[in-house]
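Consider the following input, taken from an annotated entry for Carbohydrate kinase PfkB domain-containing protein (Stylosanthes scabra).
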Amino acid sequence: MSKMQLLHPLEHEDAEAVIIGGMVLDIHASPSIAANPGTTTPGKVYYVQGGVARNVAECMAKLGAKPYMISALGFDMAGNLLLEKWKSFGLSIEGILKDKDIDTPVVCNIFDVNGEVAAGVASVEAIEKYLTPDWISRFKSTLLSAPVLMVDANLSPPSLEASCRLAADAECPVWFEPVSVAKSRRISSIAEYVTFASPNEAELIAMADALLGSDEFRPLKGYDKKNNLSPASLFQLLKPAICLLLEKGIKVVLVTLGSSGVLLCSKGGPSSIQIPVDKTRRRGFGGELYRNVMKRFPPNSFLEHGRSSHFFALHLPAVPASVVRLTGAGDCLVGGTLTSICAGLDIIQSVSVGIAVAKATVEVAANVPSAFSLATIVDDAKCIYSSAKVLFHQSML
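Applying the prediction step yields:
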């Protein structure tokens, strides 16, 4: 007989974003000297709470939000560790399925001496097997007041579709986080429901190919030194793929460029994508963030390009950072952006905050920093916002 359990909630009536996806135990192995094949290497091994959706949700929690997590864990060491950590944040565990047959998702990453992932093995099949449309549909009522739903592409295509249909019924915008090149292709059946998507360059190309049903989009092939390209030149290479995603129904495409920042592309300006006021949450840290951002860089610099009939592309730069480890940076960029959107900031302000949060993340060893400094985030976000450049705007009439 199955031991499947619906865990009792702590508190969730004031939940903000709904996050659906994987909670994963990451095992990080970092050598202290360059590794040699065929033998062990001195270094450190760490257990780190991970998973794209979990990282995003933890980041939001550290920024004062109350994300509502829908995920699945086993009754094993990894599952118990992840659940106890989640409880320590004071967040709801109602949406987290526990089952004796679940092997809690685990990913083992081996890093090089520069902090980059050299190799990795992922055992995450449980996310697809147990995060089913039936389980997700139990939380339909939670979406009714949610300002946004984030889904990660670890979900099976049927579960992605079910999640997006529930969000559409609740008039809740959807954020699609591609996770990897292979899984990013799962956009093909849900593009019409997606408001925000946050691929890197390779995921963007894979998503465009999946939506077109061919391998036509290969603009970066032969550009091995693409890191030397200016953001404007890189945008021109990626523009056909970006345009396809927008034509297929995605409202905002955020192309993450690592240390080069973010390309923000949409069919309208910053005012065309806004959370209804009655769904914004401006208490605690989020409220302070909103007030500080609105005071330091109010949403007026780009409004001249804000008509809904325009294709709008903007480059927001990264800020210099003292890099310790790069894992978690992209997830925290999404977490910072989502927290800002939920507080009522516009998309350009929100992405500026997201990049500032990502900067704070790469300066620590964990996937998510133990705490964030509001003053530092706002200072960095203002610098990013002030340095943003419009790359393209054109009437689509």
